[in-house]
Design goal:
The complex is a heterodimer of chains A (431) and B (909). Chain A is α/β, with parallel strands linked by helices and 431 residues long. Chain A has helices at residues 18-23, 28-36, 39-49, 61-66, 93-100, 102-116, 130-145, 176-183, 212-224, 226-231, 263-270, 304-309, 328-342, 348-365, 371-383, 393-407, 409-418, and strands at 79-84, 120-125, 161-166, 207-211, 240-246, 253-258, 280-284, 318-323. The longest helix of chain B is centred in the middle third of the chain and has 16 residues, at 341-356. The chains are: A alpha/beta (431), B alpha/beta (909). Chain A: This is NADH-quinone oxidoreductase subunit F.
């Protein structure tokens, strides 16, 4: 099995230095595109490879690039931003790439920047990834000294500067337009689209924001071609993907696997199955902002289309497992607490709706729920949908809630009727 | 135009607008919060959701925020859709989770957009049963209250304050449902336009602190359309009264003039009307104490007029009608302008430039559309604040016209527009002798003496058109700057030149005129705005009259012995000794005014005039726009409009013309007949006989409460409502309920719209002109008959032991009446003299130390404030700021070097 993204990552070992990375074929893609490919050819190649954004939305990367104005008339400077603000609960795939092989990211960023003719690039890094910050800083310096970054890269006439920016820890910054606002030093509120960042992004200039994993795929696509990339996968979606599992499994972790590997295979073969004494109850397939899947979905292949048809999203591909000894209401409450806290406060439904939901879930969890609370939760799941709120944060927050209400409604009702949490061994006093 | 289908009915709407604007323009009730016509859309509140369908076969549709959707031809929309309605009700439900429901004790109650929208969406019952979040409120200065618990986080306040008005000390802090809108710490809001927050805020977070001192619900106010009397721009206001005191000033939308906003001087300066210094009884000083009767006073005045040789001194803060009646009473030859001779000459010059020049003077709305601006010698924020606010919008024009339209972003999509534009600004050049708040927006600033500013102006004009005289001896960088300004003005679609009388130099005005005319000669659609000293300075200049100096001389020479002074404190117009000598020489001094001042103290006969809220009249603004203001409430018999006092006086002395007049309409008619310059003024507002369906227009809303009980302790029978003989407005709630003509809107109200957002219903198009046209008639159009001025001045030369004292203006402090308003007084600076930093060092003076100097025999001891910009050899003296004595500036000040410098700052005289 070919594992291009993680082939040079050995857990516990320092990442490859520039020299070592070059020895195993690093930066070949940069040499190749600068020498033999036009920016539009790179865009077409990536479009043909059907690489989909790995940040969660799953939009064709080459297509996303194609909306950037090209040619001498286009506004300058253009920007490329690597979204390394991995804040999705239960998600730790980009961290592996950042800490394991920072040069791979830099190489991918040079390819992407060349494709859209960006001259300034940023790595927007989650504040808590201290080790990654160190590694990237060092890698950028090495790449600069070796002439892969800076003015006139490898004598090609193409220039690219790269900066590391560490965020201050807002989930909102994972949303690309909020990330851009934060990068400009403004509040991390999202922006209305249109205009899309491709037209008016960072400082009002054409900008592409790509996820770390997406960018890391680029050198391999350039080196091996679109067909090779498609061939990596067992599904209509191309390539490999980092899948992760957390929860009460025997071996929680993160693995690079072909897209289309079934949930059951990931869960049982790689994560080692449930811990002894715990039964599987449900899972969030791609981070906290995706709908629950249950037993009946375990044989689904992890690809964008299959998961979507089951009513959820592949998201970041990192699963959170709910077991039978964890209260689903408490589980969802914990998620809603996170989302309510991370709401930027810009639009009404998210700012006011999520804390309300959180309070209701807490009340239910404490046995103080009322039957009408479920109705209130229902209208939130209905009206905090995409388009009704300003960005995708609240709709994302509603996904685990609406599916929990669907699959685990009895558990919610038991809380309300029995006036206490059935999972709680200790009676809790009222608030 | 585009045709859209709303609930299956076709409507023609303006293409390019957003769907919310289109719906509101059509008169449909779509609730909203964060959208504001002057500030566009950001899509934050999600209140204006409607259903939009892909095509006629789409039955499901999808919710969209109407403020963020551009209208498309053939678009299918439903406002009444059940799901959309339910969502909108839920938005209110969400907002209410943390709103304190304290309407009963909230100043906004009854004129609250949040209340209106809540009712409109049908959200009735609270479902939220948990704790609400609470905040600590801030002290924001004397103008505004802060009550954050009521906040619905619509972002309007920061968008207005920071983005629109350029303020720096209000922002949004924290996140999620703990957003906080306020200052970084307690303190006075710095912006001169902060009061608009009270109107921009859709609920009771920011409310008028002056109103709170004498609080009344909007529905219990008696209101009348008024015109701001505190500068020359003539912003439209609504003045509200209850129980004989003026309670507040709010904005009266005029699409051509002030739009949605007012400056803080205009909004909070009204309390001179309620001042303890008001003159409430007539007085004949020789017959004190009993002669405080109206008819005795009139009789005394009449015999003085009959017996004496009378001159009249008019006033730029009195109405055109009052000045005209005085002029008629004393005769054209004996009518003098009650302004300093310099103001007289400069205002005359400004009028001549507007009349004879080639360039048109734009309205404030047109100023906002200018895409290149050159300011000569005016500190606009302090001399004509709303013009500064308009210039702030004008610098956005060039990027809006170029970048934004190129990127195909609709101008109303505010956040996206600002993101794209970033800090890009259109050309603004500012040449002043002191730092101004607009400097931060300027492409280039030029700080120099008025002479040097004029020279730069002449050079710019010469660069534009070679027919203008060249300027010799310019420095290299000045030549370069002149070229740069000329290029920017020539490259613009709507170049604008702004100058005015406030720097006290006629050459600056002439240079400004040259530039505007030069641009016209090069066939550019150039505009010229000239500010003038006071609210009716332009009207007075158009009326004509002699200088004050000649009036004073007439008495001193014995040509006259009696003077009638109209609403004027001569101690603010001429030197102390001169005025005192003048009064000594007068046999009889008759003064009409509404506040006690040093002039009224000398009056032998004092007649209490009604201030703006107790008078009807016409003002002519700097643009030459005649606008009517109306009396707000009936006054005690002893207080009446100056023109009524003077008419009665004229009738008693059997003046040929005046005794023929039987009221306001007759005076207006006489003005038009006698003075062709004022033709058109009769069309400013309907005559007093105007009725709609046989009814008058009520000043009080139909929601007015407690009328019958007001005097119930005296008599349970309801008294007859007072009559207003001068206008078609009634003083009570009786009258026509529909919309009156635009010139006489006493309040904005529509069913379901109790807040000022009801303005929507009075506009042809949301944010556009009022139905029936914006009020006011422009009396001046340029003839293009003037010639280029060739009076290029010599450069300024400093004098040993002298400082050339220049006038410095303050939004809060320089204007005569507003300073009687306690909150304005609180914001006024302490007296000081501004000194060039290098000069201060040469004079061995530090900030706060006292400078002793003499201007025209008047001694001044003032603490020094150093400035890096005020030119060397000059200094700045605050104008009009009590208690700094009057000086006609600019003038040479002699330094009293033999006095020892004092260490401590001294602020008293």
């Amino acid at each position: 099995m070919e594992l291009p993204l993680t082939q040079h990552i050995v857990p516990g070992r320092k990442p490859l230095s520039l020299k070592e990375y070059e020895k195993v074929g690093g930066y070949q893609s940069v040499r190749k595109i600068l020498k033999a490919m036009t920016p539009v050819e790179v865009q077409t190649l990536v479009k043909d490879s059907n690489l989909k954004g790995r940040g969660g939305a799953g939009f064709n990367t080459g297509l996303k690039w194609s909306f950037v104005p090209m040619g001498p008339e286009a506004a300058t400077p253009k920007y490329l931003v690597a979204n390394a603000d991995e804040m999705e609960p239960g998600t730790f795939k980009d961290r592996l790439l950042l800490e394991g092989n920072p040069h791979q990211l830099i190489e991918g960023m040079i390819v992407a920047a060349y494709a859209i003719q960006a001259t300034i690039s940023y790595v927007f890094l989650r504040w808590a990834y201290k080790l990654a910050a160190q590694e990237i800083t060092q890698a950028i310096q090495e790449a600069q000294e070796a002439g892969y970054l800076g003015e006139n890269i490898l004598g090609s006439g193409f220039s690219l500067e790269m900066h590391l920016h560490t965020g201050v820890g807002r989930y909102m910054c994972g949303e690309e337009t909020a990330l851009l606002n934060a990068l400009e030093g403004k509040r991390a509120n999202p922006r209305a689209k249109p205009p899309f960042p491709q037209v008016s992004g960072l400082y009002g200039k054409p900008t592409i924001v790509n996820n770390v994993e997406t960018l890391c795929n680029l050198p391999h696509i350039v080196n091996n071609g679109a067909e090779w990339f498609k061939g990596l996968s067992q599904s209509p979606d191309s390539g490999t993907k980092l899948f992760g599992v957390s929860g009460r499994v025997k071996k929680p972790g993160c693995w690079e696997l072909p897209i289309g590997t079934t949930i059951r295979e990931i869960l049982e073969e790689y994560a080692g199955g449930m811990q002894d004494g715990y039964l599987f109850k449900g899972l969030l397939p791609g981070g906290a902002s995706t709908d629950f899947l249950v037993e009946e979905h375990l044989d689904l292949p992890m690809d964008y289309g299959s998961i979507q048809s089951a009513g959820s999203r592949m998201g970041t591909g990192t699963m959170i497992i709910l077991d039978d000894q964890t209260c689903p209401v408490g589980f969802v409450h914990n998620l809603q607490h996170f989302f309510a806290q991370e709401s930027c406060g810009f639009c009404t439904p998210c700012r006011e709706g999520l804390p309300w939901v959180e309070k209701i879930l807490l009340a239910i969890d404490r046995g103080e729920g009322k039957p009408e609370h479920l109705l209130t939760l229902d209208f939130h799941t209905k009206y905090l949908g995409p388009g009704n709120t300003f960005c995708a944060l609240a709709p994302g927050a509603m996904e685990p809630l609406q599916s929990a209400l669907k699959y685990f409604r009895e558990d919610f009702e038991r809380h309300i009727h029995e006036h206490h949490c059935p999972w709680s061994k200790v009676w809790q006093p009222s608030i | 135009m585009a045709t859209i289908y709303i609930d299956n009915k076709p409507y023609d709407v303006t293409a390019g607008k957003n769907l919310l604007e289109a719906c509101l323009t059509l008169g449909l009730d779509v609730p909203y919060f964060c959208y504001h016509p002057a500030m566009g859309s950001i899509g934050a509140c999600r209140q204006c959701a409607v259903k939009v369908y892909r095509d006629e076969n789409d039955t499901k549709g999808k919710l969209f925020m109407s403020c963020m959707e551009q209208v498309r031809d053939g678009m299918r929309v439903s406002v009444a859709d059940m799901e959309a309605k339910e969502f909108r009700a839920h938005v209110i439900g969400w907002l209410m989770t943390n709103h304190p429901h304290d309407c009963a004790v909230c100043d906004e109650g009854g004129s609250c957009h949040l209340q209106d929208m809540t009712v409109m969406t049908g959200h009735n019952y609270r479902q939220y049963s948990f704790e609400k979040r609470t905040y600590r409120n801030q002290y924001l200065g004397p103008f505004l209250n802060h009550e954050m618990n009521r906040c619905i986080q619509c972002y309007r306040c920061v968008r207005y304050y920071k983005d629109y008005a350029g303020g720096k000390d209000l922002d949004v802090f924290a996140a999620h449902n703990h957003l906080y809108f306020g200052r970084h710490e307690d303190g006075v809001l710095e912006s001169e336009f902060s009061g608009n927050l009270a109107e921009v805020c859709p609920t009771g977070v920011f409310t008028d602190k002056t109103l709170k001192q004498h609080y009344t619900r909007k529905w219990d106010l008696t209101t009348a359309p008024s015109i701001c009397h505190h500068c020359s721009l003539g912003c439209n206001t609504i003045a509200g009264e209850r129980y004989g005191t003026l309670r507040n000033i709010t904005n009266r939308y005029n699409g051509e003039v002030n739009g949605y906003f007012l400056c803080d001087r205009g909004r909070f300066g009204y309390e001179h009307v309620n001042s303890l210094s008001r003159i409430r009884k007539p007085l004949v000083r020789s017959q004190l104490p009993e002669a405080t009767d109206k008819y005795l006073a009139l009789k005394a005045a009449a015999s003085a007029v009959k017996a004496g040789r009378v001159i009249g001194i008019g006033s730029p803060r009195a109405s055109l009608e009052s000045n005209y009646v005085l002029r008629t009473l004393v005769g054209e030859d004996n009518f003098h302008h009650g302004v300093s001779d310099m103001d007289h000459d400069l205002t005359d010059l400004a009028l001549r430039i507007l009349r004879e020049g080639a360039a048109r003077t734009p309205s404030l709305r047109e100023v906002e559309m200018a895409d290149a601006v050159f300011i000569l010698g005016e500190d606009l924020t302090n001399t004509a604040p709303m013009l500064a606010l308009a210039v702030r919008q004008a610098v956005r024009q060039k990027p809006l016209l170029e970048q934004v339209s190129e990127a195909n972003i609709p101008v109303w999509q505010d956040a996206a527009v600002r993101e794209l534009v970033q800090t890009e600004k259109g050309p603004l050049f500012s040449a002043t002798f002191t730092e101004t708040k607009l400097d931060e927006l300027a492409t280039q600033t030029y700080f120099a003496s008025p002479e040097a500013i004029a020279r730069l102006g002449y050079a710019v004009a010469h660069n534009i058109c070679l027919d203008c005289p060249p300027v010799e001896g310019l420095k290299k960088e000045e030549k370069k700057l002149a070229g740069q300004i000329a290029d920017a003005l020539l490259a613009a679609k709507n170049p604008l030149i702004i100058s005015g009388t406030h720097c006290g130099n006629e050459r600056v005005l002439k240079a400004a005129a040259n530039i505007a005319d030069a641009l016209c000669a090069r066939e550019r659609a150039a505009g010229i705005v000239l500010t003038v000293p006071e609210c009716n300075s332009m009207g007075l200049a158009m009326l004509g009259g002699h200088k004050l100096e000649s009036g004073l001389e007439a008495v001193l020479n014995g040509y006259a012995d009696t003077v009638i002074i109209l609403e004027n404190d001569l101690y603010r117009r001429a030197g102390e000794a001169t005025v005192t000598n003048f009064f000594k020489a007068c046999k009889q001094v008759i003064v009409l005014d509404h506040l006690h001042n040093r002039t009224t103290e000398t009056a032998g006969i004092l007649l209490p005039a009604g201030p703006f809220s107790e008078s009807d009249g016409t003002l002519i603004n700097n643009e030459g726009r005649a606008q009517r203001f109306y009396q707000v409430h009936p006054t005690a018999e002893d207080i009446q409009e100056s023109w009524r006092w003077l008419s009665e006086l004229g009738t008693i002395v059997a003046h040929d013309e005046i005794s023929q007049w039987h009221g306001y309409d007759d005076i207006l008619r006489a003005i038009v007949i006698e003075l062709p310059a004022f033709r058109g003024i009769e069309a400013v507002a309907p005559t007093s006989e105007f009725r709609i369906a046989g009814q008058k227009i009520p000043r009080a809303s139909h929601r007015f409460s407690g009328r019958t009980s007001i005097l119930a302790n005296v008599n349970v029978s309801e008294p007859k409502p007072p009559e207003d003989p001068d206008s078609p407005l009634s003083y009570t709630m009786e009258g026509y309920r529909g919309q009156p003509p635009s010139s006489m809107i006493p309040f904005f109200w529509a069913p379901g719209w109790n807040s000022n957002q009801a303005t929507n219903k009075y506009q042809q198009e949301v944010g556009g002109h009022l139905k029936g046209g914006d009020p006011g008639v422009r009396l001046i159009e340029p003839s293009g008959t003037g010639e280029f001025s060739t009076a290029v001045p010599q450069n300024f030369l400093p004098l040993e032991d002298h400082l050339f004292m220049l006038p410095l203006y303050h939004t809060f402090g320089s204007e005569e009446l507003s300073i009687y308003s306690p909150p304005i007084m609180e914001r006024a600076p302490e007296p000081y003299v501004a000194l060039n930093a290098a000069d201060a060092m040469r004079l061995k003076l530090e900030d706060g130390q006292t400078l002793h100097f003499t201007i025209a025999g008047q001694n001044y001891d003032l603490p020094v404030k150093t400035s890096p910009h005020i030119p060397s050899g000059t200094a700045g003296l605050p104008i009009g700021l009590p208690p700094v004595p009057f000086a006609e500036l600019p003038a040479w000040a002699i330094l009293n070097r033999n006095l020892k410098w004092k260490k401590q700052p001294q602020t008293t005289f």
